Amino acid sequence: MDLVLNVADYYFFTPYVYPSTWPEDEIIRQYLSLLVVTNLGAFILYFFFATLSYYFVFDHSLKKHPLFLENQVYREIKYTVQALPWISIPTVLLFLVEVRGYSKLYDNIEDSTYGWPGVIFSMMSFLFFTDMAIYWIHRGLHHKLVYKHLHKPHHLWKIATPFASHAFHPVDGFLQSLPYHVYPFIFPLHKVVYLGLYIFVNVWTISIHDGDFRVPGFLEAVINGSAHHTDHHLYFDYNYGQYFTLWDRIGGSFKYPSAFEGKGPLNYMKTITEEKLNDHGGNGCKNEQFFSGKSLKTK
Predict the structure, then answer these.
(1) Which domain of life does the UniProt lineage start with (predicted)?
(2) What's the total number of domains in the chain?
(3) Which of 16, 40, 116, 153 is a good FRET partner for 230, with 20 to 30 A between their CA atoms?
């Protein structure tokens, strides 16, 4: 994050905001600058990629689904806008510690013990480490003593849109992001790679809320994608993982996505539409059984 802070200082904060008597490496100034940069970056990432996903990937027929809430998109955005500034407060403290040199982030490829292979390995280990940690944090947030206080707001969205991706209670949002920030304090990681991974995880979080879209067949058993996460929102007790199905399989919480079996929300909407076309005046009650209390948890 010091790379971003240095650019912000050079082009904006030093010439236009702070007095010349305030050193760039002063801790209060760094915290305030990081707070601005982090919030601005979070909102840009969220609105840019969630908007693209909403208009070009998300199937808008899902907005007619019986579990899609009134004014849901507006409510998802409002919840996110209210939560992100609060999430950033503890996040920036971690960025500050990193900027002041207490992490294992490094500047040059030569600083990696194994050169480029070490850099590539660190990228993979970042994904596997954070996937493991987020799995257990996420699963813990579903515990009955915690769920209603922290994680329940995110499960308001049974049929989520990309704008629901960051609609968390602030404590929930920070806890699930914590592994990303902890990793570079434990393992070496290139600074530019870290920034790239930080962007990637935000885009990934948006992508798994874009409907029940499929991944290539040979990756279905490995990647915990949108279809898996759609069932997490619908059925509650399954598919806690972030990127991979590994920990759900180990923890006994893996559920083969209903979308892959032709029973997902999009399939439901197609069935309803076809019935209305074929049965003029039919009410489609038969298909409502798919989302009855017998087959769907609505905690």
Answers:
(1) Eukaryota
(2) 1
(3) 40
